């Protein structure tokens, strides 16, 4: 999907050189969404009847572009034939998703088979050999992190092959976005701006009720050939389930978008907590200094009293 980036001045020139009808036909934006964009960026629009008057040489002169402290560029997506979408009123998540989908460095198309040259992470995941991270006195140290390892996958052989192809695409896309991976024993993490987000794959199962040879009812879990990607841990855990109509391959841009925004939010909260912690430590230090001063003054007063009694 191609797009065009405008500054405020460029968008101002556009709305006074083309009618709203022409603009909405050229770009994936509705009449109302485009008016909102102009309002948000303090861009005056031609008054009603402007273009009719212009045909007769009686158009209204454009008012000057107001001074604004907004310096963010405006991105409009070029409309192709038959595409009736309105991308002018997107939320933050959708804007990031489209940005990832249009990133020239990111290829989200999952191959039908793995290439011969694999990323070391994919090679390690494909191998049946365990990755041996160092132990401290024979004990696993989960506080350590290593740049090499495998992504955890629990699946039958047939599904494992497809999961590998998805992992191959995901690893390349994550690295193309400037992020990285870290590992410790059987755990794998995507690292975005220093924030770790756990990631693992598993095949979904369904519970089958059956009657055994003795007539007793029992149950067992059977794989159903569908993959689940689990991201995050504890309260931030999220499961990405595919269905027969919507495979996981078609959710990769959504998954990467969620990971980046989740990392942003966690980093924001971490920054706030670090600031609070720093202020608390400063306050505690001040209180300690005051307490020491008070203690010194009390001791000084006690010494004076003791000296006065000697007189």
Topology:
Layout: E1 3-6, H1 8-15, H2 20-26, H3 31-40, H4 50-55, E2 74-77, H5 92-101, H6 120-126, E3 152-154, H7 157-176, E4 180-184, E5 187-192, E6 195-211, E7 217-231, E8 238-241, H8 252-310
Parallel strand pairs: 3-6
Antiparallel strand pairs: 1-2, 4-5, 5-6, 6-7, 7-8
Characterization of this structure:
It is a single chain. By secondary structure, the protein is an alpha+beta fold. 41% of the residues lie in helices and 19% in strands. It has two domains: 3-89, no CATH class; 120-269, no CATH class. The protein contains eight helices and eight strands, in the order βααααβααβαβββββα. The strands form two sheets. Strands 3, 4, 5, 6, 7 and 8 form a six-stranded mixed β-sheet that branches. A two-stranded antiparallel ribbon has the order 1-2. Helix 5 (92-101) crosses helix 8 and helix 6 packs antiparallel against helix 7 (157-176).
Number of domains: 2
Q: What integer value in Å does the Rg equal?
A: 31 Å
Mean of pLDDT: 91
State the total count of DSSP E strands.
Answer: 8
Which ranges are low-confidence, i.e. pLDDT below 50, for 5 or more consecutive residues? none
Describe the global form: flat
Strand content: 15-25%
Distance between the termini: 95 Å
| Topology as a string of helices (H) and strands (E) | EHHHHEHHEHEEEEEH
Number of helices: 8
Major β-sheet profile = 6 strands, mixed
């Amino acid at each position: 999907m191609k797009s065009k980036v405008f500054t405020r001045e460029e968008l101002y020139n556009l709305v006074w050189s083309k009618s709203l009808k022409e603009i909405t036909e050229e770009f994936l934006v509705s009449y109302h969404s485009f008016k909102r964009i102009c309002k948000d960026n303090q861009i005056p629009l031609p008054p009603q009847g402007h273009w009719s008057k212009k045909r007769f040489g009686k158009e209204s002169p454009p008012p000057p572009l107001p001074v604004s402290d907004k310096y963010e560029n405006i991105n409009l997506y070029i409309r192709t034939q038959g595409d009736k979408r309105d991308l002018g009123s997107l939320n933050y998540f959708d804007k990031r998703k489209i940005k990832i989908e249009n990133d020239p460095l990111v290829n989200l198309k999952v191959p039908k088979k793995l290439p011969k040259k694999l990323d070391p992470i994919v090679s390690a995941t494909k191998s049946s050999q365990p990755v041996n991270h160092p132990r401290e006195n024979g004990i696993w140290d989960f506080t350590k992190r290593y740049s090499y390892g495998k992504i955890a996958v629990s699946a039958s052989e047939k599904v494992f092959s497809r999961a590998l192809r998805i992992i191959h695409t995901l690893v390349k896309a994550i690295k193309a976005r400037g992020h990285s991976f870290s590992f410790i024993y059987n755990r794998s993490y995507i690292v975005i701006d220093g924030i770790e987000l756990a990631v693992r794959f598993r095949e979904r199962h369904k519970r089958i009720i059956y009657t055994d040879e003795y007539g007793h009812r029992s149950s067992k879990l059977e794989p159903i050939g569908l993959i689940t990607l689990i991201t995050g841990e504890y309260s931030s855990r999220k499961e990405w389930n595919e269905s027969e109509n919507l495979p996981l391959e078609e959710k990769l841009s959504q998954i990467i978008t969620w990971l980046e925004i989740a990392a942003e939010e966690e980093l924001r909260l971490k920054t706030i907590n670090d600031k609070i912690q720093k202020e608390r430590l400063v306050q505690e230090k001040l209180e300690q200094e005051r307490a020491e001063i008070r203690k010194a003054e009390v001791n000084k007063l006690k010494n004076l009293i003791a000296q006065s009694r000697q007189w």
